[in-house]
Amino acid sequence: MYPRIISVLFYMFFTCVIFNPEVQGLAIYFYVFIPFLDPDFSRFLASTARRWSGPLLIAVAVSLASSPTVAVKIVSIAICIGYLMYTMTRRINYLHHWMAINIIFAMLQFVLYYVDYPLSIQLGPEEMSKMIWGQYATPTFTNFFEIFYFARVSGFSREAGFFSSLLVGAFVAYLSTERVNKKMVALYCIGLFISFSKSSMLLFVIAGLYLFRHKLRAVHPLMILIIFVGVITPLSVFLANHGFYGSESFAHRFSGYPFLLDARLEDVILGVSPQKIVAQYTYLPYIHSIEHLVKIGVPFAGLPATVADLGLFGALVFIGVLAFTASDGFVMLLFLLLTCTVSITTVTSFVPIAYLLLYWPRFTVFWAQFTQETQERLSNGSNGSLSRFRRPETNRPIPIGSK
In this structure, are 167 and 240 located in the same domain? Predict the structure, then answer.
């Protein structure tokens, strides 16, 4: 019962981001610390350390050399990934239960938008966060407005776009790792409809890529990464030359790629801070258009954000670690798509979910072998503490990443 309570708390704070405070500009994500309240989680980490400790140490070491803040974020993401896997093997995964709660609350916001608009705003992330934390409320944006004649809402996320990204990531994870229930699928579809944003369109892209999953799995993740950068860079340069067609959203997501071509070599190699970008690069039209975002510390999204934070060498090592530890080319492409709207070192919940998808197929194979080897070593034939865990499902194919 105790591990279940801890899991419920973790997934509450994990999916309901506005329940986490911010102190002096630093977000305090409770879900990074809550897992260690369960002693079995620490034992799970110790028993699997030989598989993840090496790559994690490399990623943290190279990050520490350039940005200790990024190193802390990487460790935080690793904790989240570990706990997601732990709860899934322990059968105490409440991710989709809390997503259902989020969607139901979002449905209430959606209805109130038309019935009692002021009340819907009071139930929006900005007012809710202030009501809970006051001056320590996490930054939010109640961007309830109509798209294609329908309002979009945010649930317990900080804004509708983040809620949409969380829904896409959680929905893909649901289809990949759980027995599919039609009611749950319908609930996710409703959530995606009432939180519609550019991130929602990724689901259609992922559905198209799923048709080619077998061919994509045969491609090394590093090659997928190179092809992705090779395609998105000229596209981003084209959009930048046309002012991103006046879209601030597109400018923020894609301006990092042309910036790496326009920036001084020194800044690309060593990394560049948001303050320096504001001071020296606002003459670039696409940087000028997102200057207010740069000032608050979020200049770029996707891979360029990692280059800006760590410098070229650090970013190449970190991204290389991801490419060489990813399960296959298909999940690597999913990861790149799911994280294209934020930095890949962002601790916000849908990013750890993207990492879960990146490593889940390989983890299922490892865990099956690990439990079998452990049980064979037990002379009395009892599986001891491993009885609390489960093997990966073998009576059905794993949709994402299966060989």
Answer: no
Closest CA to 270 of 74, 58, 66, 60: 66
Q: How far apart are CA 94 and CA 81, in angstroms?
A: 14
Contact 43, 49 (CB under 8 A): no
Is the model's pLDDT at 387 over the cut of 60? no
| C-alpha dihedral, 236 to 237 to 240 to 245, nearest 10° | -60
**Distance (Å, rounded) from C-alpha 43 to C-alpha 17?**
27
Q: Per the domain annotation, does 72 fall within a domain?
A: no
The residue among 222, 224, 388, 217 whose CA lies nearest residue 319 is 222
| CB within 8 Å of 53: residues ≥ 6 apart | none
| Confidence (pLDDT) at 375 | 79
Angstrom distance (rounded) from CA 18 to CA 20: 5
Last residue of a domain, one of 178, 207, 236: 207
Q: What is the pLDDT of residue 379?
A: 54
The first and second tokens of residue 37, run together, are 């309240």
Strand partners, 27: 22
DSSP string, 217-230: HTS-HHHHHHHHHH
How far apart (Å, rounded) are the C-alpha atoms in residues 335 and 400?
Answer: 12
Please give the Cα distance from 329 to 199 (Å, whole number): 21
Query: Which residue range is the domain that position 142 belongs to?
Result: 2-37+94-207
Q: What's the pLDDT score for residue 398?
A: 43
Three-state DSSP state, 23: strand
Nearest to 20 by CA among 372, 368, 293, 349: 349
Got the DSSP string for 311-376?
A: HHHHHHHHHHHHHHHSS-HHHHHHHHHHTTTSBTT--STHHHHHHHHHHHHHHHHHHHHHHHHHHH
Are 231 and 358 found together in one domain?
Answer: yes
Q: How many domains does the chain have?
A: 2
Q: What is the pTM of this model?
A: 0.91
Distance CA 89, CA 389 (A): 5
Q: Of the candidates 227, 237, 288, 229, which has an alpha carbon nearest to the alpha carbon of residue 258?
A: 237
Whether residue 232 sits in one domain with residue 101: no
- Write out the H or E segment, with its range, that includes residue 146: strand 146-147
SS3 (DSSP) at 142: coil
How far is the C-alpha of 24 from the C-alpha of 117, rounded, in Å?
32
Give bridge partners of residue 302 from the DSSP assignment. Answer: 343
In angstroms, rounded to a whole number, what is the distance separating the alpha carbons of residues 166 and 99?
A: 9
For residue 160 the two structure tokens come to: 């509708």
